[in-house]
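Complex record, six chains
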Amino acid sequence: MFLDSALREAYESITTATITTILLKKGLRNVALRGPKPLRTWGRLVGPAFTLRFVPAREDLATPASWSSPTSTRGAIEDMPEGVIAVVDAMGVQDAGIFGDILCARMAKRGVTALVTDGALRDIEGVEGTNLPVWCSGVAAPPSVAGLTFVGWQQPVACGGVAVFPDDLMICDRDGAVVVPQALIEEVAELGLEQERLEGWIMKEVQNGAKLPGLYPINDENRARYEAETKKGG
Amino acid sequence: MFLDSALREAYESITTATITTILLKKGLRNVALRGPKPLRTWGRLVGPAFTLRFVPAREDLATPASWSSPTSTRGAIEDMPEGVIAVVDAMGVQDAGIFGDILCARMAKRGVTALVTDGALRDIEGVEGTNLPVWCSGVAAPPSVAGLTFVGWQQPVACGGVAVFPDDLMICDRDGAVVVPQALIEEVAELGLEQERLEGWIMKEVQNGAKLPGLYPINDENRARYEAETKKGG
Amino acid sequence: MFLDSALREAYESITTATITTILLKKGLRNVALRGPKPLRTWGRLVGPAFTLRFVPAREDLATPASWSSPTSTRGAIEDMPEGVIAVVDAMGVQDAGIFGDILCARMAKRGVTALVTDGALRDIEGVEGTNLPVWCSGVAAPPSVAGLTFVGWQQPVACGGVAVFPDDLMICDRDGAVVVPQALIEEVAELGLEQERLEGWIMKEVQNGAKLPGLYPINDENRARYEAETKKGG
Amino acid sequence: MFLDSALREAYESITTATITTILLKKGLRNVALRGPKPLRTWGRLVGPAFTLRFVPAREDLATPASWSSPTSTRGAIEDMPEGVIAVVDAMGVQDAGIFGDILCARMAKRGVTALVTDGALRDIEGVEGTNLPVWCSGVAAPPSVAGLTFVGWQQPVACGGVAVFPDDLMICDRDGAVVVPQALIEEVAELGLEQERLEGWIMKEVQNGAKLPGLYPINDENRARYEAETKKGG
Amino acid sequence: MFLDSALREAYESITTATITTILLKKGLRNVALRGPKPLRTWGRLVGPAFTLRFVPAREDLATPASWSSPTSTRGAIEDMPEGVIAVVDAMGVQDAGIFGDILCARMAKRGVTALVTDGALRDIEGVEGTNLPVWCSGVAAPPSVAGLTFVGWQQPVACGGVAVFPDDLMICDRDGAVVVPQALIEEVAELGLEQERLEGWIMKEVQNGAKLPGLYPINDENRARYEAETKKGG
Amino acid sequence: MFLDSALREAYESITTATITTILLKKGLRNVALRGPKPLRTWGRLVGPAFTLRFVPAREDLATPASWSSPTSTRGAIEDMPEGVIAVVDAMGVQDAGIFGDILCARMAKRGVTALVTDGALRDIEGVEGTNLPVWCSGVAAPPSVAGLTFVGWQQPVACGGVAVFPDDLMICDRDGAVVVPQALIEEVAELGLEQERLEGWIMKEVQNGAKLPGLYPINDENRARYEAETKKGG
């Protein structure tokens, strides 16, 4: 999927809080991944989902030797286009780190925008050194094979209790990571920009001492005022 | 996968407790599914795994309308050969039933040996009426689409925290469901039969008042006695 | 709330599985209580919700002495009309039993239809002796005051992760307990009866060897056949 | 510890529900084990605690070979006096069975009254065949060494979130298993017998249609009536 | 409730660790909320509890439209007196944020001392911008209506497994949030001040190399020394 | 146990991520404690384990008075040799803090290298003031006796789901805390140093743009190159 720069810019100014409100109004209540949080502050990052999938470890499969099999995380990483957000289904396992510094360094080299997982990272100091933006659920020393077997990429996955399909849009900020289904990407961008504009105006009102009822959510009278003022301002 | 009748018969006499002990001795510690328990008593059932996979529900995908899509549970069921054990990865979700009476009735009609899932069944009274043997983790009224989206079949899956691949062997009894990796099916059958024979002899000794140390695990002296007696007996 | 006998009879023939499917089609995905299961088999029971609410124990409040305060479970029970289903929000606490044999005996005397809770019962043998139908999440010896403080009745409550309001309709069967919002009681009854009729016909088709695609969910051709046959039959 | 037959008989007539109420009045709120439930119905069983302790498995320690070490579960079992209740701290692990049929058979032979654990049993069909009464938290096929390392017996343990010391008294019934600290055994027996007598009288009143307030808990007027009647009766 | 400035000042110098120790000595073991932690460092904050209560979302109730109903979080906020600590029972739900930047800005404007919840906040960057002190259990992008329905304020609530009543006293610091029942506010302040004085003296002794036994807890000899020295110093 | 300075220095340069990979290759998959994370950054700390063990609180045992019993945490602390890492089995309880500032100050005075626990600390601001390095699972105001009873030291313990024996080696860094069984301490040091050297070389290759397959894990060709270059360099 190609994400044009206007869309990317739009999404960079819409909070994940606003995106989830808009999707909820369209009937989608399960779009915010449970678990992944940013390791540190990177602002808001946007990109199409590139999915990876693990199943539980089985000692005959999940071995250091498996790392050189063709269905390996290494193969998946070499397949990642620039600008994607890697979304890794680790079934929420917190006892093993899916990737450490070397794999993250390679992802950064390839221009991957961010890594999102409901699992843990390992060698966290090394990972931070790579400057790859990471939204994860924890940190654990053991290698992935201690708890996980890698089975493939670019399939539908479960990540943090949310379904993610390849080429859905991922948006990640301080609140976490949310997914916008591919078919709704343009519509949500439009509605989101308008919503941010409105909430900015409401926030100014609150800071001037306005009461909440009638203001948020906005009633007809206040909406007229908002439209008048923002037209003037715009 | 075809399971010949000698192997099937062998496994029907080996407890899942014995199978897990044997696999542990070969270094496999994660082969017993966490969650699935038998709805009622059916003895021990054996068959190759036929896998199904769900991801979480997303309201634009998990709808009653999706039930007639080509990638539907209906399509998967019509693809199941006689004698398989269906293993359904429901990510442990207990809020929605993966199947109800109608789907189970069709599976029974097709000669499916058993249904194993880390999720829940629904319309449990109707399901019991179909006589399909079921190992599941719970019972829930809501339809699968309330919590789950079906994404495919005969892929590697996670079920109850264990990796299951198509054509691994499933064995289900009162203790739950365990998987034997395809490459080990013959060897585990042999070792299992011998182990059951030995444990039967030990149990008789215990019932005659023997102490455990030296007997279980067996020391050289007792093993000699066991071999003498069972040779005699055999 | 008064539940007329036609409605009660209708609901007694609609499974909770069917009710949740119908509510899902109307956009309500969170109506099946997580946790409460029947202690034994009582068929399907129906009645308006009469709610009770606990908060966690605080040793200065949750004492045996509190049992004689006016805001006590005793007071709530004496306030229950005949035919209601008591729905008790115990916040899922499994370490203390909300009621034992004496309170259940009094509820049975008063003609309460059933008791539903996301908590535990205590003195379970005595409770069974009272013949009060119970859907609960567990069994625990300690008295309620070991973990819970009673704070009132006929308020909105959370039970098993579902919102229940006084006079919503509760339906309880083998799959668990579900709630129908008061405003939808009549409509769901109608839709439910029709759905049960259709599924009965589909089940017969499956038992005659029909394949699932086109049948369930039903396509136009099969629906025509269904309508023809059931008109004949009706 | 020796439990005289009068005490044993007394406790056999006091429910665990009543025991926890009495201990609560004495300030002990954490005496009912979370998890252990009876495999089937055995009435109420009573005996001094004989404790066993596991820590998590480490592959260099928890091996089938370890079963013949001097610090083994086998050694512990051969050390159990007749009439004790074995209380096994398995840290709530549900992925491995602490004991199977052979060890339970030996415990039954030695006259052990019951086995209580916050872990799981394995080979459950075989265990049932031994007729050893078991209160456990689940059933799992894998051997203990798949998840647990045995480290000793007759030490203080945690079982189901409750502290149990050797020679505390265990009482097990349908509601689960509770512990009475050694120093309180006689006092709790006395108070418990009286409480059961009172609750029996209250239950009769309820069955005759009495209201709860004033009756349960009992007020002065009703207590006078109770004492008059039971004196008469006694 | 009015909290006079001497009491407020006293509590600002007593750690929540000391408060829980004192309440434990008075038999109250369940006064520290599980979950709420400070978003950043604000020192110790003190104020009477102003409670809010949510139940789970039901799609017919928890809608953006509900935000303008009279029983809305907006109404509750406009009802908060200056100096209170808002305590929000979100049943521990981590999938939806109870409040975002606009509502927090309004609370800050109204002089609310702090916000405490066992749920999550949303739009966390915006919330930080309002400078409202927040103790919460997580961060989540979705709006409250994605998981919660607001049902009222100034009722008894459960927050983080602890009962909180309107006008109990809340104290929040780095260790979390604790509640002092209204009847004990004065007594705990006195005992707490004395305890802090004693522990300060003990800490100095430890830093001078004193051993713990006899010192902490303090024996008679050391107490005499403490009293002598602090009298001198005081 | 005495840890010589060469070994200590070696381990200070080996990440816990590398240690767990090496132990996994030797068949040990359960050596990383689940839960304990560093309160702040201290680099990597190494020392022999000195174990402490708690069981759940029972109100007759876990009292402030118990703090002066001979089997008290105070006694255990006075028994700790310089340079050890205290490993405290708190059964993962997060509702009570095992130690506060005074006990941590005494441990720092005695030259304890670090404190590791699957439980919580209390009075966290005070604890930070002592400069004792702490790996814990949380922060809680209540004293240990609110949830825990201390039962002894230098016994085998469970900490974060891992078995730890006295004199095993503990290594703690940003990823958490791991244990090396006593018998493997020398071997793991050697293998670890070599592994760190190899991974350093691989990382440089990645930063120069090398692809992962063939590099990590390393194939024969790359290993030859590595050996040539590092020999040169060494």
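Note: DSSP finds seven helices and twelve strands in chain E.
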